[in-house]
Structure formats: C-alpha cells, structure tokens
Specification:
The structure holds 2 protein chains of 2 kinds.
Chain A lengths: L1 H8 L10 H36 L1 E8 L3 H17 L3 E8 L5 H10 L6 E4 L2 H6 L3 E2 L3 H4 L30 E5 H6 L8 H13 L5 E2 L9 H14 L6 H6 L9 H14 L11 H7 L5 E4 L3 H10 L5 E4 L8 E4 L10 E5 H4 L2 H14 L2 H9 L22 H9 L3 E4 L8 H16 L5 H18 L1
Parallel strand pairs in A: 1-2, 1-3, 6-7, 9-11
Antiparallel strand pairs in A: 3-10, 4-10, 5-7, 5-8
Chain B lengths: L2 H16 L18 H47 L17 H7 L2 H34 L4 H13 L2 H11 L6 H8 L16 H25 L4 H9 L4 H12 L1 H16 L3 H6 L11 H11 L3 H32 L1
Helix pairs in contact in B: 3-14, 4-8, 4-11, 4-13, 5-8, 8-11, 9-10, 11-14, 13-14
The chains are: A alpha/beta, B mainly alpha.
Chain lengths: 460, 341
C-alpha cells in the first residue's frame, strides 16, 4: 500500500500523466506488492506465534464426555490453565457421547497414541499392564488424603476428577411443583417410595422415567435397590469379594432383583429399553414422568435448569426399609476407581510429564476448585476445602447438600479385588436388562450371572 | 467342453487374434517346418524368458499392495488364530496359552448361539429380501421411459450414506418418545401402533433387518439394472414373436440371463449380512440385554468392551469358518445354476 501511495507523488509537478491502462497496470502491481508485503508480515507474525507455541509443551487430555455440565467444566478448566501457563498447553481430546470407552482406550494403546492425561476407568487393568505413570506427591499433597490410594507398588496412579461423595450422585430427580400440587412427600422409607409411585400412578401420571439404551444407566435404578444387601457385607470386605470367596452368591440379590422387576413393570415409563440417559431430563421437564433416575447429582439439576429455568427440580435417594440411605463409598484404588491419570507414554518425555503434573497441580488449586463450583459441579476434595466457595445457586442444590448432612446417610464399601470385575459388570448389567425386559426369569438371570462371575473369576 | 475350458480357449483365441501378449508366437503356423524342432525351440525359449520377465514386472507392480495386504490383513488374521488359544486381555503384554478352552466356552454359550441365530437371520434374510426387492425395482427402472436418471438416483441414494450415518438417522426417527415415526402415528390417531422399535425384544431384530435392507439395496439394484440392459433384445423379441407372455419372457429369457448377477448379488449380500456391525452398534448396542447381538458385534463386545481379546479372537475364527463355508456352498449352488443357464 505504501508503494501505491508514494509512487504517484514521485512524479512531481509536470510529470507526464499516465494513461488509464498504465494506471490500472501500476495499480495492479501496487496491489500485488501490497499483498506480498501483507503475506510477508503475516508470515512474520505467525512465525512469532509458532515460536512462542513451540516453547510450550502441548499435551492431550482425553476425557469421556457426559452431561453438558461436565463438558463445560472440563473446557472451562483447560481454558483457564492454558491462559495462565507459560510452559504447557493442554488440548482437549473428548470421547464423544455414545462412544465405547474401553474400545477407544484400547485403540489408543494399540496405536501407541496415549494422551498425557486421561480420564481413567478400568484402572487396575491399565495399572497392571504398566500403562500409567505414578502421580507425584506435589499433586497428591494438594488433596484430602482419603480420596486417593496407593497401589500395591506404593504408587498413586489416579486422582479424583470431582468430589468423591461416593455414589451420592445416583438419585431420583423429581418435579417439586407436582409434589406440592398433590401434597406428596419425599419418601423416608422404601415402602414410602412404593406408596409414592402408587399415588402418582393413581393420578393418571407416570411415576418414573429411567434409561437403559446405553446399558450403564441401568445402574441408576438397580444400585439403590441393591444397596441394602451390599451394605450388609460392607464390614466383611464387600459383597463382590464375598462372592469371589464363595461366602455370598448372586442369589443373595434375588430380593432387589424382584423389586427391580416389579418397579419396571408397574411404574416405569414405557420405552425405557431404548431411552438414552440424557433423554430422562427432557421426559421429566415435559411432564411425561414425575420422577427420573439420574447419576449426575448436581449436574443433572443444572441440566434441568438449562432446559427449563422455571422447572422446580428436587432430588432424593431411594431409602431402604429402615429409612437408611445407603451410599457406596468411592473406590480410590482397584478396577472401579476412576479419575485422572498420567500415561506411561507421556512419562517417557520429561517435558510432557512435567506439563501433565503442572496441569494436575493447577486442577487441584483453590482457584480451580472455585471455578469448577461456578461451572456447576462440586469441586474435588482438596486439602484446602474450607477455602472453596460452594455453589448453592443451582435450583434444587439444597436437596443435594442436605443429603450429605442427612443423619440416615450410611456409607458402605464394596470394592472388588477381581482385576477383571468390569468385564463381569457389563455382563451383569445386560443380564439385568434382559430380565427386566421379560426375556428371562429372575432365577435364570441369577444363574447366568453367577456362572459368568465364576468363569471370569477363574480366568482372572 | 467345460465352461472353464471354454473360457480358457476364448481367452487364448482373443490373445492370438490381437497379436500381442505372451502367447503370440504360439500362433505361428505349424506347417511343414514342423520337422525342424531346433527352429521352433529357440523362439519358445525367447518367449518363455520374455514371459517370465513380464511376469516379474507385473509382480513388482502388485508387490506394494501385496505387502500392505499381507501386513495389515493376512498376518493379523493369522495372529488371531494364535491369540484364540490364549487368555489375552488385549492390553497386558503377557498372556497364557489355554488350549481350546475359548472354543469350548464359545460353543457352550447361549449368548453366542443367539448371536449366530441373529447373524443367520440378518445375513440370509437381508440377502433374500434385498435381492427380491432390488430385482423388482431394477425391472421397473428398466421399463421407465421418462425420468430414469431421477429415479435411479433416488433408489441409489441410501447406498451413498454410510451405514453408521444411516443408522444414526434411523435411531432418531425410531425413538420411542421423541421419534418422528411414533409421533406421526400418534398424530394420526394410531397411537396403539406406536412401538418401542429399538427396545422391544420381539421387534428389534426385524427392525434391524429392515434398516439393513434399506441401506444395502442401492448397489444390488444397480447391478441388476446393468445386467438387465445387457440382455440381448433379439432373444426377447424372438420369444415374443413365438407368443411368449411377459411373464414367460422373464422366466425363460431374462431370469436365466441374470444368473451371474444373482450369484454376485447374493454372495455380496450374504457376506454383508454375516458381518453386520455398525447398525447394531448404533441402534441397539446389542440390546435390550443381548437379544440383538450379531456375531460381529459379539466379537467386538467381548474382545474390546470386556477385555477378553483371546475369547474374541476365537469367536472371530468361528465367524470366519461360518462365512467361508456358507459362501463356498452358496456359490457352488449358484454356479451350477449359471452353467445350466
């Protein structure tokens, strides 16, 4: 542009006037020069940016996408980290909803394409295979010591992604306005829960929406029903270990399986077999069901609020016959433990490993905990938890926090030692769905699950 | 003369007529000079050397593709045979050999036989349905005088969409609560007909069969259409002059001339049916329960989702045997029919 502007003035007074054609040619040359100059400048600028980026170590964080709240939290935290870090950039590598986690990770493993940070499941399988790197004390020291555990070799391989409040997130989300209108109360015992559903049904409405289209959400109704049996074995190394030792059997779960079948047949919204987890929010807000199963805790309340800000949602956990609210404690080790892990592949590169550690240190800081709360999830249990500002603004959140303070809340343990328990767990879910659907009887389901457990335990 | 001998003769004749190619000198007349063997032997040697050189040249052309195929397909397939005898979890580098235990377990598994039943139903069912419908559609398209291009495009369009994408669209359409199919039925006052298409264990395999047929029909129609248009019209006209009805023309002229296309289409459809995976993965994940699992999905599920790669490999070997045996038998039957034709 400079050339084009300067050039005509250089002719001076009295200079021969250019012809129109010549002027167009010169203008064209000027434009071309301008473009070249602009490109050169852009090149310099981007080269500078590349240099800057090259100084930073880029690492991938693979995580399983879930509800909108969780996806927003991951994106928000990573953006905040990238903004403040001079040494590392974290790139998100989300596993889309509906993709199979085990397959995705096995594919990464087979192709040698591990991310530095991974949202880890089936943890013991990957620890035993040497695919995870130890997490240093600089990270674990930022956490409450009850929310992580050492593996058999003394190393910590996984740290929690969010608050470890066990399976308190598995609960029933309900329409508070409907409850008020029909003078219904949150159930205090299991019988109350059945009476509640009976009353809703007698009003001509559908009591409960649940989902089994993706297999895993079938746990949302099953686990609270089976919790009283699991809780009985809590002090004796857990139910599943008792089954492995031959002291208990799947037949001990017959009563909850019968209840599962009864509730499914009598009170659940039709179409549950093909309903996806996320659809239950819509079913609730549309009034197609008065209650819906959930495993997202506060996240589900936030989702409901996003779909319909005027909807009054509340939540509760199905109590047992005595009124106890049995909730599974989180496993901090073993195959069912989950959270963020650093891959062994990343540990081979000092810079990548350091970048992953930097991110985890950032993740478990007070500022990030506050950010996670603002974004709608409960922050991980960090050592300085008293400095975290809790988010109570989500409608219905008071029910969630009240659950944590409920005197009837009973924590139980049920951490399987079987390294291949996840294989059985998938099979058991499908067997239950098959039984709920009426393809098999309860006794057949028990027999089938018992045989599979024994086979997997013998092989594993 | 058998059909193979006939083919060989035809090829040799064609090569000789064109005058180029490795067999060219063989076309030299064997006249009175035939009593001079030395004169004949020398050119044959030259030809033989040239033929070998050309063969090596041709081999070098296919070598890169062959290497890729061997490394990416054949070797892993052979490795599956080895892995099927182990308890490998697919992740850990160590495993133990357990003999034929995986095979024993597979053959005694009700879940596996349910997958076999579904695979047979979807494989054979889709092959028959697709071929019948495609043939009818091809016959209709062949008779069209106007708008041929438009209707051919319409028929072929579903085949252009990947199975995964098509299945995803169907998943939305068939959703029990929000899908357009049930919504339409309810809006028309036919709410009783609204079904949980993908969640009802009595319906789900039939729904999968419908979707598979819908997706795979385009190619089959195209092959039939191409063959229909190559049926010699003089044969058709001769039959009509002899007083044959349209049905008889089809039965005794068109249908026998389509025998080759039927073989190709049936083979392709059966193989596609044996290996149905993406539709099951997207639409039902094998459920509800295990009811809609196919063999391909079963292999994937146990091998990847349940960390039993050894067991999954054994199932893959069984699937391979089923596919190869059924394809060979079906082909043998259809080839016989072609010879008669």
């Amino acid at each position: 542009m400079t050339y084009a502007m300067v050039r005509p003035s250089s002719r001076g007074v009295g200079a021969e006037q250019p012809t129109a054609r010549g002027a167009r040619r010169k203008a064209g040359i000027g434009l071309a020069m301008t473009a070249i100059a602009a490109l050169a400048l852009t090149g310099c600028a981007s080269g500078g940016a590349e240099t800057e980026a090259a100084e930073k170590t880029t690492i991938r964080f693979t995580y399983a996408t879930g509800d909108e709240t969780w996806n927003g939290v991951v994106e928000g935290v990573v953006d905040a980290f990238n903004e403040q870090s001079d040494t590392a950039t974290v790139q998100l590598d989300p596993l889309p909803a509906g993709s199979d986690y085990a397959t995705a990770v096995k594919t990464m493993d087979a192709t040698g394409n591990w991310p530095a940070l991974i949202d880890m499941r089936d943890t013991l399988t990957y620890i035993n295979a040497g695919k995870l790197a130890p997490i240093p004390e600089s990270v674990t020291s930022l956490l409450d010591e009850n929310v992580y555990g050492e593996s058999s070799d003394g190393n910590v391989y996984v740290v929690p992604t969010t608050a470890l409040n066990g399976e308190i997130g598995i609960n029933i989300v309900y329409d508070k306005a409907y409850f008020k209108k029909h003078k219904l109360e949150v159930p205090e015992t299991y019988d109350d829960f059945i009476d509640l559903m009976e009353e809703i049904k007698s009003n001509g409405d559908v009591p409960l929406a649940t989902a089994a289209g993706e297999v895993w959400p079938s746990d949302q109704l099953w686990k609270p029903l089976a919790a009283p049996v699991f809780a009985e074995w809590s002090d004796e190394d857990g139910f599943w270990n008792a089954v492995q030792a031959g002291e208990a059997s799947i037949a001990d779960l017959k009563a909850p399986l019968e209840e599962l079948k009864r509730i499914t047949d009598t009170y659940v919204l039709q179409g549950w077999q093909s309903t996806a987890d996320a659809q239950t929010t819509t079913l609730l807000v549309n009034g197609q069901a008065v209650m819906a199963t959930s495993s997202a805790g506060l996240g589900r309340l936030l989702d409901v609020n996003k779909v319909d800000p005027d909807f009054e949602a509340g939540l509760f956990i199905i109590p047992d016959e005595d009124g106890d609210i049995n909730v599974l404690k989180n496993a901090v080790n073993g195959d069912t433990a989950s959270g963020i892990a650093i891959s062994s592949q990343a540990a081979e590169d000092e810079k990548e490993y350091q970048a992953a550690v930097d991110f985890l240190e950032f993740y478990f800081s007070v500022d990030t905990a506050n950010l996670i709360e603002e974004l709608g999830m409960i922050a991980p249990n960090i050592a300085e938890a008293d400095k975290v500002k809790r988010n109570t603004s989500i409608p219905g959140a008071e029910d969630f926090f009240a659950l944590l303070e409920n005197p009837n809340l009973t924590w139980y343990s049920n951490e399987p030692k079987l390294a291949t328990f996840s294989s059985f767990n998938t099979f058991f879910r499908q067997t239950r769905i098959e039984m709920q659907d009426g393809q098999t009887t309860i006794d057949q389901a028990i027999e089938k699950a018992q045989a599979e457990y024994e086979k997997i335990a013998a092989a594993g | 003369m058998s059909d193979r001998e006939g083919q060989a003769t035809a090829v040799a004749t064609a090569v000789r007529l064109t005058g180029d190619g490795p067999l060219e000198p063989l076309a030299q007349p064997q006249g009175p000079g035939g009593d001079h063997p030395a004169a004949d032997v020398a050119p044959v040697r030259v030809v033989s050397r040239r033929f070998r050189r050309q063969r090596w040249g041709m081999f070098m052309f296919i070598l890169p593709a062959l290497v890729v195929y061997l490394v990416m397909v054949i070797l892993p397939s052979l490795q599956s045979l080895q892995l099927s005898l182990t308890d490998w979890d697919g992740v850990n580098s160590s495993y133990d050999y357990i003999g034929l235990r995986n095979y024993e377990e597979i053959l005694g598994s009700g879940r596996f036989w349910n997958a076999v039943r579904n695979t047979l139903l979807l494989g054979l069912g889709s092959a028959v349905i697709i071929n019948v419908i495609s043939l009818v559609v091809a016959l209709l398209l062949d008779k069209l005088n106007r708008g041929q291009g438009f209707f051919r495009t319409i028929v072929y369009l579903p085949a252009l969409v990947s199975g995964f994408i098509a299945a995803t669209i169907w998943k939305y359409m068939l959703n029990f609560n929000f899908g357009s199919v049930n919504t339409l039925l309810r809006d028309l006052g036919l709410g009783d007909l609204a079904q949980d298409w993908l969640g009802d264990s009595d319906l789900v395999v039939g729904v999968l069969l419908f979707i598979v047929c819908f997706t795979l029909g385009g190619n089959t129609t195209l092959i039939y259409l191409a063959n229909l248009q190559s049926v010699p019209q003089e044969l058709v006209e001769a039959a009509k002059i002899d007083g044959a009805s349209n049905a008889k023309v089809f039965r005794f002229v068109t249908w026998p001339m389509l025998a080759g296309a039927v073989t190709v289409n049936m083979t392709l459809a059966v193989i596609a049916g044996w290996t149905i995976f993406d539709q099951v993965m997207v639409l039902t994940s094998g459920g509800p329960g295990f009811v809609s699992e196919t063999m391909a999905f079963f292999i994937y599920k146990v091998g990847f989702g349940e960390y039993r790669a050894g067991y999954g490999s054994a199932a893959a070997i069984v699937l391979f045997i089923v596919v190869i045996v059924s394809t060979v038998l079906a082909n043998r039957y259809m080839r016989k029919r072609e010879i008669q034709a």
